[in-house]
Specification:
The protein has four helices and no strands. The chain is mainly α. The chain has one domain. The model has no long low-confidence stretch (mean pLDDT 84).
Length: 129
């Protein structure tokens, strides 16, 4: 009986560790977007009107991508037709502002968090290279 309980607890612990690792990778991916925004804000302290418009656009796109990340984390089991556009916006923001391009397609059979994790994990791997 106790061995059975221990095995169940160990399995639950492994699931929680995997979930924590996913959330950490997502956090690191969000940090990529924020770092790119910060770099541009510091660089453009005294900027032209055109640079200000570009920075404003980046701020809006980053804000939207971060809201999408939050929504995907809150509702990971939503249908793929709901989370794929959000994942695409996040991917586009990473591509436009963090200079990281994706080569991986979304896995419709997986949930939103798993796909978000794959997206950010791919970005992490690209930065290390």
């Amino acid at each position: 009986m106790r061995l059975n309980e221990t095995a169940l607890q160990r399995e639950k612990l492994q699931e929680q560790q995997q979930s924590l690792a996913q959330l950490n990778r997502i956090k690191e991916g969000v940090q990529l977007l924020l770092d790119a925004l910060e770099r541009n804000m510091v660089r453009h302290q005294e900027c032209t009107p055109e640079e200000a418009r570009l920075l404003e656009r980046q701020l809006a796109d980053t804000s939207k991508a971060l809201r999408d990340v939050l929504d995907l984390e809150r509702h990971p089991e939503q249908p793929s037709e709901d989370w794929i556009p959000r994942l695409n916006r996040i991917e586009e923001a990473l591509s436009n502002y963090a200079d990281i391009n994706s080569t991986q397609q979304a896995d419709i059979d997986a949930d939103a968090i798993t796909n978000l994790d794959h997206l950010f994990h791919q970005k992490e791997s690209a930065q290390e290279a």
